[in-house]
């Protein structure tokens, strides 16, 4: 039976932004065997390397469920309502936070925050090596003096010397929630502000509906707090060692991290790499 596999990016597929060649080969192998593989990440599409998003996966669930695309067809592209977006930008600016606004086409920040954003994300989201496939992601950062009219699906607080991300979300209002950032190596104060009701499982459910896939045939593999709903939704949940307890509680089994090629282990244990699907 064909499985539909959803894989988190940071800490699951990639180790500090770098995808091991063994993971790329393993995904190619199980797709050749007839299984579907989708990236399921908190990152916006604009911060997924082009080589990966264009050829490695059958589809993308980005922005933690706020954006879904299959074969170039966009199924979901949820943005902050204009009033909530304006209030979010005003409050993050008022409290002197370093923040970005994420959208599928780009990420946006104030000019005086650009250098700090690039520094914070270097070696975690993108590489400073021009020969690396993730180097191109630095060009996704766009600056503007006025972000009040920006269209975005999620706000990321990179640094805050004042209120915590949770407190900022409360100030913005009941339309939003907050969660610790999922990017490996980011400071403990960094976090994401997203629309309430948006999570990875919502994006997965839309994919399942579109493809006609029963939940029992869905596999989800993740490592962080924003993967809890994803792994709980799946028929088979696989979790990276060292994950939060809230996520481990939903695991059918545990795998090593990406530095030890955990996806290879997961696919072998699930029998996805052993033989083609027979229809």
From TrEMBL:
Gene3D superfamilies: 3.30.1240.10, HAD superfamily/HAD-like. GO terms for cellular component: cytosol. The keyword Hydrolase applies. Its EC number is 3.1.3.104. Keywords: Hydrolase. SUPFAM superfamilies: HAD-like. GO terms for molecular function: 5-amino-6-(5-phosphoribitylamino)uracil phosphatase activity; magnesium ion binding. Signal peptide: none annotated. It holds the Pfam family Hydrolase_3. This is 5-amino-6-(5-phospho-D-ribitylamino)uracil phosphatase YbjI. It comes from bioreactor metagenome. The lineage of its organism: unclassified sequences, metagenomes, ecological metagenomes.
């Amino acid at each position: 039976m064909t499985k539909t596999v959803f894989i988190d990016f940071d800490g699951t597929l990639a180790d500090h932004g770098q995808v091991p060649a063994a993971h790329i080969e393993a995904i190619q192998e199980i797709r050749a065997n007839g299984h579907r593989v989708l990236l399921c990440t908190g990152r916006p599409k604009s911060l997924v390397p082009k080589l990966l998003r264009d050829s490695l996966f059958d589809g993308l669930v980005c922005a933690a469920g706020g954006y879904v695309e299959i074969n170039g067809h966009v199924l979901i592209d949820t943005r902050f309502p204009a009033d909530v977006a304006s209030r979010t930008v005003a409050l993050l600016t008022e409290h002197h936070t370093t923040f970005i606004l994420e959208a599928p086409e780009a990420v946006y920040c104030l000019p005086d925050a650009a250098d700090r954003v690039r520094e914070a994300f270097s070696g975690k989201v993108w590489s400073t090596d021009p020969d690396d496939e993730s180097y191109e992601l630095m060009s996704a950062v766009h600056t503007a003096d006025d972000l009040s009219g920006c269209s975005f699906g999620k706000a990321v607080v990179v640094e805050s010397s004042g209120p915590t991300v949770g407190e900022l979300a409360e100030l913005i209002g009941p339309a939003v929630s907050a969660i610790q950032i999922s990017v490996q190596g980011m400071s403990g104060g960094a976090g994401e502000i997203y629309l309430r009701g948006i999570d990875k499982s919502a994006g997965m459910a839309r994919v399942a509906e579109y493809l006609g896939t029963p939940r029992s045939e869905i596999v989800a593999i993740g490592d962080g707090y924003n993967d809890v709903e994803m792994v709980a939704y799946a028929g088979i949940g696989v979790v990276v060692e060292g994950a939060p307890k809230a996520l481990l509680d939903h695991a059918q089994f545990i795998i090593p991290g990406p530095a030890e090629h955990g996806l290879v282990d997961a696919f072998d244990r699930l029998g996805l790499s052993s033989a083609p699907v027979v229809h």
